[in-house]
Every structure is written in structure tokens, then in C-alpha cells.
Design goal:
By secondary structure, the protein is of the alpha/beta class. The protein contains eight helices and eleven strands. It has a nine-stranded mixed β-sheet, sandwiched between helices. The longest helix is centred in the middle third of the chain and has 25 residues.
């Protein structure tokens, strides 16, 4: 097993659902603690870690919009949900002994720092975990797109996309047991085949900037560390 990381700076994309565990809604403190401990292991390896977290465990803007709510309003509500998740994750990380800063795209100085690119990079250089909340700060953009954008801005080496399955499949393996696992694909294949890696805006942004994406199963203990050490975990999207 390799002992040194192949990536120096990563952007970890977590869905809001990742914090739910087996619950139907909200945040499971046990799951938040487990994720925090895994991120803490990366810090001990010297890996600089930035995190973008979704809000689907609390509020999903697109779903509310489909039920008749104004899309911009629904998206702003979704952004606020990501701030709640970011604060919960910050709490879990700091309980695990990991110094953490939450930076939000929508200013709310009482609870978090506003997003300033150079400040965020400085936090990473000082060994702090940076959690980016409130997406891009704009409606109509998903947290996948926010993850791609922040990865470029932070000059990350890779996006680590945490999911509930071990990589990319030709179809949803939960619904289609015969779906084929794809160890490596190109950005164009992901777009043309409509594979649910990230949304098309995020993949296009990664393709234009040659940002590799590793898709892995967060529920398997140690997977995050193995992926950072360069082991073949999950699936890779690149040129």
C-alpha cells in the first residue's frame, strides 16, 4: 500500500444526504463524526482539504421548484441548508481536533467568514480544513458546479466526489443489478452517455480545466484515504 499521498490539495464534494446516515432527514452526528475522522487522517498525511457540501438532507431547491415554488427562492433556501450542514461538519471536525473554517458565498458574518479566494487558499496553506457553504451564491447552479468552481479557484489537484456506490456505473446499480462498473471514463463519455457523475455544467467546467474527478463510496471506511494515496478506488473521470 502506498504510504505517501498522490494529491497535495483536494476538493471533497459531499452531498447533504451523506450526513443523514440511515435517517430520512437531517444530520446524524455519528456519521458526521466518522467523516470528520476520515478527513482528520488526510490532515495527518499533510493533504490540504477543502470541502463543498450540499443541502439535500434539509432542503432541495430543485424539488421545491418542481412543486411550484419560485426557482430562485427555492435555490436560496437550499443554499442556507448547506450552511447548516457546513456548521455541523465544522463542529464534528473540531471535535476530532481538526482546525476548520467555514466560508460562505452568501455573507453571514455572525456564523462564518465570507468567501474570499486568497483567504481560503491561505487557510489551506496553514493546514486548516476549509468548508465552502452556500454553493456559488447564485441560483440555478448546483453544489456540483460550486465544487468544480471552488476546485479551480483553490488550484486543487483533484475533485473527490463521495457517493453511496463504489464508482460510476452504466446505470443506477441500486435499480439495475446488471449495471457495469466503469473504472475510468472521459468527460465526453460522461456527458454523452448522461452518466450521473456530476451535472453537465460541472463536468464541462472540469473538462475545460482538465480537473480529474474521482468518484468513490464514502460508506466504505478508509476509502477516502485510499483514494488520496492513489489506490484504484471507485472510478476516475479525466481527459
Amino acid at each position: 500500500m502506498p504510504s505517501s499521498p498522490v494529491y497535495n490539495r483536494i476538493l471533497l464534494k459531499l452531498s447533504g444526504e451523506a450526513l443523514m446516515g440511515d435517517q430520512q432527514y437531517g444530520i446524524d452526528p455519528v456519521v458526521a463524526t466518522r467523516i470528520a475522522n476520515e478527513v482528520g487522517e488526510l490532515q495527518s498525511l499533510g493533504v490540504q482539504t477543502a470541502i463543498v457540501i450540499g443541502g439535500g438532507n434539509i432542503f432541495r431547491g430543485l424539488a421545491a421548484s418542481a412543486r411550484g415554488m419560485d426557482r430562485a427562492t427555492a435555490d436560496y433556501m437550499g443554499m442556507l441548508a448547506t450552511v447548516m450542514n457546513a456548521l455541523a461538519l465544522q463542529d464534528a471536525l473540531e471535535h476530532a481536533g481538526v482546525t476548520t473554517r467555514v466560508l460562505t458565498a452568501i455573507e453571514m458574518r455572525s456564523v462564518a467568514e465570507p468567501f474570499i479566494r486568497r483567504r481560503a487558499i491561505r487557510h489551506l496553506e496553514k493546514g486548516r480544513v476549509v468548508v465552502f457553504a452556500a454553493g456559488t451564491g447564485n441560483p440555478y447552479f448546483t453544489t456540483d458546479t460550486a465544487a468544480a468552481l471552488r476546485a479551480m479557484e483553490m488550484k486543487a489537484d483533484v475533485i473527490m466526489k463521495a457517493t453511496k456506490v463504489d464508482g460510476i456505473y452504466t446505470a443506477d446499480p441500486m435499480e439495475h443489478p446488471d449495471a457495469i462498473h466503469l473504472a475510468e471514463i472521459t468527460y465526453l463519455q460522461a456527458l454523452e452517455q448522461g452518466l450521473k457523475v456530476m451535472d453537465s455544467t460541472a463536468i464541462s467546467l472540469c473538462m475545460d480545466n482538465r480537473m480529474p474527478i474521482v468518484v468513490f463510496n464514502l460508506k466504505t471506511p478508509g476509502n477516502l484515504k485510499r483514494a488520496v494515496l492513489g489506490e484504484p478506488v471507485g472510478s476516475m473521470v479525466r481527459v
